[in-house]
Design brief:
The chain has a single domain, classed as Rossmann fold (3-Layer(aba) Sandwich). Helices cover about 40% and strands about 20% of the residues. The relative contact order is 0.20. Bound molecules: 1,3,4-trihydroxy-5-OXO-cyclohexanecarboxylic acid.
């Protein structure tokens, strides 16, 4: 099984960005955490980060026939992007929505997610463990389906 992890805008600034919300560990530490979680599940994984919405849409489209599942933290685009939601529907690849913070316990606008209705599952509020749980739960879903 092969998964693609897509990280959206400003996640590259983990560690210095609002540490009270996102913690002190940096983006390299997040990637190491994701790789360890995938290895524990015996899953191949690729990880990318971009600050650009269209690059995320391209990555979702390019996942066709290459990946069994997608784990995505669309970051701020969660709350705005019809294009990313449409791409997830278009490729029809099982997709997990992930957030480090509990988006439902923050500002009102973060309660809106365009991707939740089109994703297989959602994990939020567990910090780095949101990613490990999403990888594990998505793998379970994909294995059950095939
Ligand atoms: C985030 C939550 C979003 O609301 C925010 O814009 C982010 C990160 C999270 O992982 O908690 O950039 O997706």
């Amino acid at each position: 099984m092969k998964l693609l992890v897509i990280n959206g805008p400003n996640l590259n600034l983990l560690g210095r960005r609002e540490p009270d919300i996102y913690g002190n560990r940096d983006y390299a530490a997040l990637c190491a955490h994701i790789k360890a979680a995938a290895a524990a599940e015996g899953i191949e994984i690729d990880i990318m980060q971009t600050n650009h919405e269209g690059v995320i849409v391209d990555a979702i489209q390019d996942a066709i026939d290459k990946y069994d599942g997608i784990v995505i933290n669309p970051a701020a685009y969660t709350h705005t992007s019809v294009a990313i939601a449409d791409a997830i529907v278009a490729v029809d690849i099982p997709t997990a929505e992930v957030h480090l913070s509990d988006v439902d316990a923050r500002e009102e606008f973060r309660r809106i997610s365009f991707v939740t209705p089109v994703c297989t599952l959602r994990v939020k509020g567990l910090g780095f463990d949101s990613y490990s749980k999403a990888i594990s739960d998505l793998a379970t879903y994909i294995r059950a389906k095939s």
